[in-house]
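Inputs:
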Amino acid sequence: MAVDRFPVEAGHILMFARSIGDPNPIYADAEFAANSEVGAIPAPPTFVQASAQFDDEYPLRPKIGRPWFGSGREATGLKREPDSSRGGGESGMGRGLHAEQHYTYHRTLVAGDVLSATTFPGERWEKQGKRAGKLVFSETITEYRDANGELVVTARSVGVRTEKAVEG
Amino acid sequence: MPLRKSELQPGQSFRTVLVEDLKRTQLVQYAGSSGDYNPLHTDEIFATQVAGYPSVFAHGMLTMGMTGRVITDLVGAARLTSFGGRFTSQVFPGDDLSATATVDDIRDENGVPIVALSVRTVNQDDREVFSGYATARIDP
């Protein structure tokens, strides 16, 4: 993932806070936030995940004129051989899951910041799972920098691909 | 709002109810705000018939996002220096979730007082769904 421009906007923070069920007025009320320690509307701790909205190639968003794997007339919009749906591709056919997420905050991210994000591959390893067959883990590191090039958040994500659906 | 070092002791714990009877609509809300439209989380037909799950289930990042509240309610929204963890079980519509933050350690890093917390989120059966940690700046 590479995101050239991720504008951190108050309306987006409001929507995000609602979606995680956080009623803290600091995310919704600009005046309240202005009088707080940070002096501006801060982003909730996991907000940088929403940079996906600004990633042109993000695979988990339907793209105009392109096939989408969710249901429509059929249970999936993609036509594939059954074999290739077994753990093939990224999260393409629903076998990719998020295993871990870690954030380091270098300063408080606030509405008005404009970030860019650069992603690097990390380690990769395999494990035999009890419930889901072979598990393939892969790590990605994303650095979020502000308009001055200063590091604001470092994110480390671990994804896992499974051979079959995980039961509970 | 910011915590003072003198008010904290290792072993103290703080619990927050994050959600009761999680609704599919909240998964749709989170898909919209985060931009993660994976149909596993919002499309019951795809999740059950194609992917083989018992129903749609929550984005791991929704669980982590909700969990963040137990920390920001405690330390303030602008004090975190780290937050991370593992998704240990899936979260399904209908689940009740609560999160507990426990003080592990209070220390100084380069003269700045820091609290280290472990964070655990469980469902209505006391099954752990997220296990993690956070560190935050506190006042002397």
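Residues 10-19 of chain A form the longest helix (10 residues). Flag for discussion at group meeting.
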